[in-house]
Amino acid sequence: MALVLHASKTNKNAFKTLIVAEYSGVKVELVESFEMGVSNKTPEFLKMNPIGKVPVLETPDGPIFESNAIARYVARLKDDNLLYGSSLIDYGHIEQWIDFASLEIDANILNWLRPILGLRVYLPPAEEDAISALKRALDALNFHLASNTFLVGHSVTLADIVTTCNLYAGFTRLMTKNFTREFPHVERYFWTMVNQPNFRKILGEVKQTESVPPVQFAKKPSQPKEPAKAKPKNEPKKEVKKHEPEKAKAEVTEEEEEEAPKPKAKNPLDLLPPSKMILDEWKRLYSNTKTNFREVAIKGFWDMYDPEGYSLWFCDYKYNDENTVSFVTLNKVGGFLQRMDLARKYAFGKMLVIGSEPPFKVKGLWLFRGSEIPQFIIDECYDMELYDWKKVDISDEAQKERVNQLIEDCEPFEGEPLLDAKCFK
Ligand SMILES: N[C@@H](CCC(=O)N[C@@H](CS)C(=O)NCC(=O)O)C(=O)O
């Protein structure tokens, strides 16, 4: 009789068990009708795993949760299974790499990925921590694999299956070739593993991601989806099906839903006395000026600028010495601009990422409605406190010239080349 695995068919934690099953000649079938966020919240499911996470394996002796435990259980169903090694020291090493793959690789991949997907708050220093901890783990793995084809012994073991499934999430979603080329033995190992026939049956053709996804807004906590009602007794057995490899990317995170929008309160900035400066006109002028930027856009800006109704601010990132990875620095600035979306009606901004070598400096200029930085922006956009803010004194020609240079992406800026310039408009 087949064992029943509750998980969606793209769940990389379920892949561990399905690959072990292929190697061990054990029948494991996925629940056909499984719907993430619904099926795993039913009272029936919570009885099997009180935390409501997948995968869960239903066995004749009761359910098992935690993907590594499930994979071990399935491996043990076959006597003398070589996936489990053949000596005490092998058992120890296999367990060692399973823990390493879970705690040093998987945990850091998830710490990097979840905030990017908007499933956790995106904090640039936390992203840097996750990446550097992941690199440390990959470096250690790379060192081991420089003189070993497999993690333990001379054939595939449970350690390789768990490690490869965890790396799979990284290779398919975050770790570009540019990132992994630093770890050539890990690359060789990963591609060798995913092309073993028993892996291929489950994973299908694996493709390395070509880019790190852009940071998305953190979603607000949502109401759980309506859980499916507990099934009445004697209901026909749930549909199960044999796993077929999916082209889709592995599901590595929990589901969240959008909240219904709440009615908006009036913004206090809408109550300010009218200004002669029309922000949209300035944004249009900025966007449409392709030549003679100084003479047209910059001059136009100062002609329009209303120091009563608006204020200009320089910002300077407080932790520039941490900007050691170019794309992380660019993501950080990109995330800041995304989070400023709430201020689009009231602000214009320029952000420069400066330098040709790390650490990169991040500096910017912002135009805000009102004579101070609007309180709702300080309250709602946590990036604000990562910068030092200085109000521009427009009676000082040097400061005005700095404003001009920031608006026009002047290069070199303060003697250094630009890595990137981003505009919020
Ligand atoms: N340590 C667990 C992790 C399980 C886990 O995080 N599962 C995710 C999907 S990959 C989940 O079910 N999330 C749903 C939730 O958090 O409610 C394992 O290896 O099985």
TrEMBL record:
Compositional bias (Basic and acidic residues) at which positions? 226-252
Give start and end of each GST C-terminal domain.
87-215
List the PROSITE patterns hit by this protein, alphabetically: EF1G_C, GST_CTER, GST_NTER
Its keywords, alphabetically, are: Elongation factor, Protein biosynthesis
**What Pfam family does this protein match (any one)?**
GST_N
Q: Where is this region: Disordered?
A: 213-271
Q: EF-1-gamma C-terminal domain: from which residue to which, for each copy?
A: 265-425
Supply one GO molecular-function term.
glutathione transferase activity
- Could you confirm whether the keyword Protein biosynthesis appears in this record? yes
Keyword Protein biosynthesis attached = yes
- Give the GST N-terminal domain ranges: 1-82
Subunit (UniProt) = EF-1 is composed of four subunits: alpha, beta, delta, and gamma.
**Function per UniProt:** Probably plays a role in anchoring the complex to other cellular components.
Query: What name goes with this protein?
Result: GST_C domain-containing protein/EF1G domain-containing protein/GST_N domain-containing protein
Q: From what organism does this protein derive?
A: Cephalotus follicularis (Albany pitcher plant)
